[in-house]
Amino acid sequence: FCTLQKRKLQLSPEQCSNFYADQYGKVFFPNLTAYMSSGPLVAMVLARHCAVSYWKDLLGPSNSIKAQRTHPHSLRALYGTDELRNALHGSLSVSTAEREIRFMFPEAILEPIPAGQRARDYLNLYIKPTLLAGLTALCKEKPADPMVRTVVSVLCHTP
């Protein structure tokens, strides 16, 4: 994972109610909002390919007691204490993650990671010209250091 944003904050009970609005009406909702507003937390935006599903796998079951039995090496098994105090939060889906990122980081600009032809177009437009100019300059310079010279030679003569 790559950490794109990180912020330490303390949510009010009202903010917790808004964040966990999908849990409203459930028996544990008052305890959840009270607990989540009882002290500071660290919110992060993590990025990688299929980030939501990988993060959910690392977290394990939301109930830490169950996680200790069924997924003993998961983060919630290691750091959580029960179903309410499960140590870490993870978005359930990409759309939920987008909503939660906007909630915790209102200034964040969410852009999809390009794939397929869009990725190739981006690389050709922005990365390739810069890389080509840098490698061309290195090839012309012919560095004195034998290790650097070898690397430059390989880079300059690899199609």
UniProtKB/TrEMBL annotation:
Gene Ontology CC terms, in alphabetical order: cilium
Any one GO MF annotation of this record: nucleoside diphosphate kinase activity
Gene3D superfamilies, sorted: cAMP-dependent protein kinase regulatory subunit, dimerization-anchoring domain (1.20.890.10), Nucleoside diphosphate kinase-like domain (3.30.70.141)
Domain Nucleoside diphosphate kinase-like: 4-112
PROSITE patterns the record matches: NDPK_LIKE
InterPro entries: Dpy-30_motif, NDK-like_dom, NDK-like_dom_sf, Nucleoside_diP_kinase
UniProt entry tagged with the keyword Transferase: yes
CDD domains: DD_NDKH5-like
Gene Ontology biological-process annotations: cilium movement; CTP biosynthetic process; GTP biosynthetic process; negative regulation of oxidative stress-induced intrinsic apoptotic signaling pathway; UTP biosynthetic process
Keywords: Kinase, Transferase
Keyword Kinase recorded: yes
Signal peptide: none
Family: Belongs to the NDK family.
Protein's name in the database: NDK5 kinase
This protein's encoding gene: Nme5
